[in-house]
Amino acid sequence: MTVFALFQNTFNRILENQVAQLFGIILGVIIYLVNPSATFYALWISVMFDLISRLFAETKKHGGFIQAVKKRHIQSNKIFRGTAVKITAYFFMCVLANQSKYIFPYDAAALFSTIVYSILFLVEVWSMAENFQEAGVLELRWISRFSQKKLKELVDDKGEKEEKKNGGEGNS
Predict the structure, then answer these.
(1) Which of 6, 18, 120, 135 could form a disulfide with 57 if both were Cys (CB 3.0 to 4.6 A apart)?
(2) How many domains does the chain have?
(3) Range from 8-22, 60-74, 138-152 carrying the lowest mean pLDDT
(4) Angle between helices 76-99 and 106-134 (to 10 degrees)
(5) Which residues does 73 contact at the CB level (< 8 Å), separation at least 6?
(6) What is the pLDDT of residue 99?
(7) Which tops the pLDDT comparison, 170 or 108?
(8) Residue at 51 is within a domain
(9) Contact 129/140 with Cβ under 8 angstroms?
(10) Strand, coil or helix: what is 137?
(11) 160 in a structural domain
(12) How many CB atoms lie within 10 A of CB 102?
């Protein structure tokens, strides 16, 4: 079979398979929206590692994986709900970071994208460090403190402090 015949055969099968067509359209839209780069992949790897570190911490705290599942500390629906919310929020932020290039001038869009990815990545680093601390790896406290400090520097919480000082009332 020639390469052309193989390509034609594959293309004809795709034309007959509506699921493959739908998957291709969805994948194309996602790639357009986020334009995946090394930064994008690094963020999603850190999200996956955060989930694994949470499972590790629960396993360690409750005497093993089987025990943690039996005692319902690890539940698929609980993990799915939390992870689904995080994935949705992070995906929307990644879309905004990528699509900002159509709104801001080039340098501003790159800066905005870097800030968004940096904050999300630091949140994951902080979460993983705390998960491992719960599991007994106390040597990672410095990473937790460092990432928490950097997040506080990046994200100004003066408005929240001001609101608490005023008794939770707005300035309306």
Answers:
(1) 135
(2) 2
(3) 60-74
(4) 160
(5) 58, 61, 62
(6) 92
(7) 108
(8) yes
(9) yes
(10) coil
(11) no
(12) 7
- CA dihedral in degrees (21, 27, 30, 35; nearest 10)? -130
In a domain, 111, yes or no: yes
Q: How many residues does the chain have?
A: 172
User: How many helices, marked H, and strands, marked E, lie in the chain?
Assistant: 8, 0
The Cα 15–Cα 66 span in angstroms is: 46
36: its two tokens = 């995946």
Q: With contact defined as beta carbons under 8 Å apart, do 96 and 170 qualify?
A: no
Q: Are 100 and 34 in contact (CB under 8 A)?
A: no
The three-class DSSP label of residue 135 is coil
Distances (CA, A) of 151 to 19, 140, 141: 42, 17, 15
Q: What is the DSSP letter of 10?
A: H
Asked if residue 16 belongs to a domain, the reply is: yes
User: If we measure between CA atoms, which residue out of 121, 128, 148 comes closest to residue 56?
Assistant: 128
CA triple 150-155-159, angle to 5 deg: 140
Q: Which amino acid is at 148?
A: Q
Kindly report the pTM of this predicted structure.
0.72
Residue-range definition of the domain harbouring residue 22: 1-34
The answer on 44 and 24 residing in a single domain is: no
